[in-house]
Amino acid sequence: MKFRLLVLSLSLSFPLFAQDSRDLAFLTARDAFRAGDRNKLERATTQLGNHELAPYVESYRLRMWMDQGDASAMRTFFERNEKSYVAEKLRVDWIRWLAKRSTWNEVESEYARLIAPEPDVVCINQQARLARDDKTVLDEAEKLWLTQLEPPEPCRPVIDALVSGQRMSSDDVWQRARRQIEANRPGWAKTTLNYLPDSQLPDSRALDSAISNSMGYLVRQPANWSSSRAGRELAAIAIQRMAANDPRAAADELDKLKSKMQDSEKQWAWSQIGLQAAKKHMPEAVAWFNAAGKTTLSEDAYQWKVRAALRAQEWGSVLKTIESMPHELAARPEWIYWLGRAQKAGGRTTDADALFEKIAGQSNFYGNLADEELGRSVMPPPKAKPPTSEEQKTARENPGIRRALAFFRLDMRTEAVKEWNWSLRGMDDRELLAAADLAKRNQIWDRAINTADRTKNEHDYSLRFLAPYGEHVRPAAQNQSLDDAWVYGLMRQESRFITSAKSNVGASGLMQLMPATAKWVAKKIGLREYNHSQVHDTQTNVLLGTSYMRLVMENLDNHPVLASAAYNAGPGRAKKWRAERPLEGAIYAETIPFSETRDYVKKVMSNAVYYSALFNGKPDSLKARLGVVGARTSDAPKDADLP
């Protein structure tokens, strides 16, 4: 089963309200707007009445007439729909329109009223400030120099101003280009290198060769390649590109060239070899990272340096690397936890416990592990009081929630989710719980879960960890001898219980089954006359999904961590990611090369702990569930063709 990004189809799995003539008028207005048919849009508008989505139709009309630049009509709309999602999105488009006409004063005025500016609009506002010679813009842009590697087009003038203002040296330009090369954005690296003085620019054909034909470039580079910085940097870039495919070959080449390279260039090249080796779980990764000395690492490289040390059980390196991370990165729960583990391994238990306390109680993978390090059980907190009738009424009457429900009713899930999420802004715990309860009562399971997930002090974990479709899931799990908490934990992560969920690679339903996987499982379990349309049937989807979970477990040491990884990324990868020796389950999970699968496995396993506690009324242990992942073996799988 391929790893994938979940997207949602438009058909709904629940009834809200029947569509009426005003719903049809809205759909007609939307279609007219998309087709650019003003007359049809005006006719539909007259039939809309006081429909919940009338503000959207008004925004359609304003967009169609935007070229006339009627600022007063825009201001009237913004005032009437202040702080709403529809007003925010229209204001963003209005700012973009104003920017094309360089009406910078109006851009700044409208920007000040935005609630959540988008990246390109931030840069448009910075352009407006530059137009009145506000140099503080360049201070802000400096902070994004190494992080905004693919800037939106409106950011280009700001970056140009940063360079022309002599805020960026040649060293800064090369450092940014290196980051872009590391992030596999060679086109953007070429753009960045154009900021170098003409006398320092690398030859464009040589740069293309170093990027696209690294070994050939290194073999054919001129004898005096090391006499210029550009020549040495291109060699380092070629080494980086080689390392992505073969770190050992790259290390061999760097050994030949390093005497002619300066520390900055060769240390960056070693860091790139270490990074790629760490992602491939190669034992040399730690040594190659060490050869990089104190070169500044990207966030990705810092994290993989720690992961390589974890797999090698080099706790001293774990500690030093996390302590050298930028503050914001080191403050993430995973690195607080692993720093605590490193200190504990070094006998500094008091310091370790202080770190575990920082994240203990958080309802996530590392919060759970920190609790257990402190000897505490993982249990849901006391359940908050149910929403009062008045709180329920307030949720029902919230204009944004009403618009979201209307979108759900019209099978416009993407718009519904955006409107729903926007409406939660600024809500306190009681309001969030009432909104989550409303979503649950309308069987909008994903919004119920995600809304309840936002509470800070009052919680209802029966909403955070909903368990719908029990009439199908519980018997299927029991028939497959599977832990129903793990099954629900996986389903929660796969689809948030949306029966119509569909991934960008074609996985479908509650358990996100790929067509080929579903067909293979159906044949394996003897499901006669199976056709792919049946995968959308809840009972069939659960039967096939739980059967696959059982087969994966049987082929992977009956280990739920391996099986969870396999469910997302395939059993072959899950096996390959094991080490040459037994590995703590938490380290296996943290060192999964695919970021999606790594996050997925952590969440599935933490979900299972909470489902178990809710189902059984007693604490569960994440550490026990993670256990130890056995060493890599050459044993053939039970099912050689397991997809």
Write the layout of secondary structure elements.
Layout: E1 6-8, H1 21-35, H2 38-46, H3 54-64, H4 71-80, H5 85-100, H6 104-111, H7 119-131, H8 136-144, H9 156-164, H10 170-182, H11 186-193, H12 204-212, H13 214-220, H14 229-245, H15 247-257, H16 263-279, H17 285-291, H18 299-311, H19 315-324, H20 327-330, H21 333-345, H22 349-359, H23 365-373, H24 389-397, H25 399-409, H26 413-423, H27 429-441, H28 445-452, H29 461-464, H30 470-479, H31 484-495, E2 501-503, H32 515-524, H33 538-555, H34 560-569, H35 571-576, E3 583-584, H36 585-590, H37 595-616, H38 622-626, E4 628-629
Antiparallel strand pairs: 1-2, 3-4
Description of the structure:
The chain is mainly α and 643 residues long. It has a domain at 470-629: Lysozyme. Helix content is 63%, strand content 2%. It contains 38 helices and 4 strands. The strands form 2 sheets. Strands 1-2 form a two-stranded antiparallel ribbon. A two-stranded antiparallel sheet has the order 3-4. Helix 3 (54-64) runs parallel beside helix 5 and helix 10 (170-182) runs parallel beside helix 14 (229-245). It is globular, with a radius of gyration of 28 Å. Mean pLDDT is 94; it is low at 3-18.
